[in-house]
Specification:
This protein has 109 residues and is α/β, with parallel strands linked by helices. It is built from 4 helices and 4 strands.
Length: 109
């Protein structure tokens, strides 16, 4: 099982493009865990709306720095493989497949 985790703070403007890029991946994670570190620009509200339309999306509020948010996301993740990304990233179509492929091929899942 693959978990893709991300921390965000005030990323409402970048999240639509991020979700679009993720949706175009040739392989998807089994779950997405996004931790909001205390946004004030509507990011949390946007994530709540997205949770209703994306299967496997887990959202958590955990004010603090990026390291704290990643630790919270890792603790909440269910996957044997945990991939980490950042808001604002735009991926090539096979990014997640190439990133996790060697681990999947090694029998980790």
């Amino acid at each position: 099982m693959v978990s893709l985790i991300m921390t965000v703070v005030n990323e409402k403007k970048t999240l639509p493009q991020w979700f679009k890029s993720y949706a175009e991946q040739s392989d998807k994670a089994d779950e997405l865990v996004i931790v909001d570190g205390g946004s004030s620009d509507g990011t949390w509200e946007y994530l709540v709306l997205m949770k209703n339309s994306i299967v496997g999306l887990k959202i958590i509020q955990a004010p603090g720095n990026i390291a704290h948010g990643r630790n919270v996301a890792i603790a909440a993740a269910m996957g044997d493989i945990i991939a980490v990304t950042d808001a604002g990233c735009i991926y090539g179509r096979d990014w997640l497949k190439k990133l996790t492929g060697p681990l999947r091929g090694a029998g980790i899942e």
